[in-house]
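Q: I'm writing a short explainer about MotA/TolQ/ExbB proton channel family protein for a general audience and would like to include a description of its predicted shape. Could you first generate the structure from this sequence?
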Amino acid sequence: MSLSLNFLSVAGLQDGLFMVSQFMNKGGPVLWCLALVVFATWLLVAERILFLKWGFPEKQQQWLAAWQARQDQSSWYATAQRNAWLGEAYLLLNQHLNLIKLLIAICPLLGLLGTVTGMISVFDLMASQGNSEPRLMASGISLATLPTMAGMVCALTGLFVHAQIAKACLQRERQLEKLLRSQ
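A: Of course. Here's the predicted structure. Afterward I'll give you a sentence or two in plain language.
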């Protein structure tokens, strides 16, 4: 039973890789550049999610424990220390968010680059063949439209995820500030 499941999963994986390979070949070299940008974006997104899940709560507990251990919480020095922790929390929470946003902005531009290169290949083919046979132009049109579609899909999903992470960071920052000021 498990042997047949392993066979099915390997065959399914091979089919999936074959479909991705065909898609990448139809889209041209710009799709590979887009794939690298998307990979870097999702790597940074994963790092942010892991930090929000495990890294920041641990750091927040350290700050709160240090604040509760202070006997003097109203002096100028205590207020400066609390503001320094809030500033450090802001920097830690917003780390890589601008880079993620930049990579997301690059995705549709790479898609447009794919469109331009695909249209250039269509026009070159039309000029060299001297006719406009649809079958010959199909690969060039595919080369022109697939990167645009892929770039837009990647940008839309990236914008959604970026907005969710930015919202989560802002909530954690406000929560920390509220906890530090309420004590």
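A: For your explainer, you could say: Residues 134-182 form the longest helix (49 residues).
Q: Perfect, that's easy to follow.
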